Amino acid sequence: MAALQRGETTIGPLAHEGRTITLVARTTAVHLGGDGNGALGVYARPAHVEVLEEDGQRHIVRVPDIEGMLVAAIALGAAVSIYALRYSRTSRNRTRRTRR
Predict the structure, then answer these.
(1) Where are the domains of the chain?
(2) What is the distance between the alpha carbons of residues 48 and 20, in angstroms, rounded to a whole number?
(3) Can you give the C-alpha Rg of the chain in angstroms?
């Protein structure tokens, strides 16, 4: 049986020039199998960075998700390439037919 768990993972805190920096990632874990011998798949994506200044001010810097845009761009590029290849093949075949 599969179990899906979601949560946040933090790395840090790291101290640098009077600032405390914590990296936060969204984590998704999938456990396949009912016992301790099952498979475990973990996927983590950066969510945000927390910065705590010396004077106590807290800043949160969001990390954009570029993976979705990257996958969409690759899929669009593949679709355009396939269309262009098919179009060039059909135009060559039409040229050959008219020459005969």
Answers:
(1) 1-63, 66-100
(2) 14
(3) 25
Q: What pLDDT is recorded for position 78?
A: 94
Contacts with 63 (C-beta within 8 Å, 6 or more apart), sequence order: 46, 47, 48, 49
Name the nearest CA neighbour of 13 among 70, 72, 53, 64: 53
Amino acid at 48: H
Q: Which helix (H) or strand (E) element contains residue 83?
A: helix 67-99
For residue range 45-92, list pLDDT tens digits in order: 888 888 888 888 898 888 887 777 888 999 999 999 999 888 887 776
Tell me how many degrees the CA angle 8-24-9 measures, rounded to the nearest 5: 35
Cβ pair 22, 28 in contact under 8 A: no
H or E, element range at 68: helix 67-99
pTM > 0.70? no
CA pair distance 53, 59, nearest whole angstrom: 8
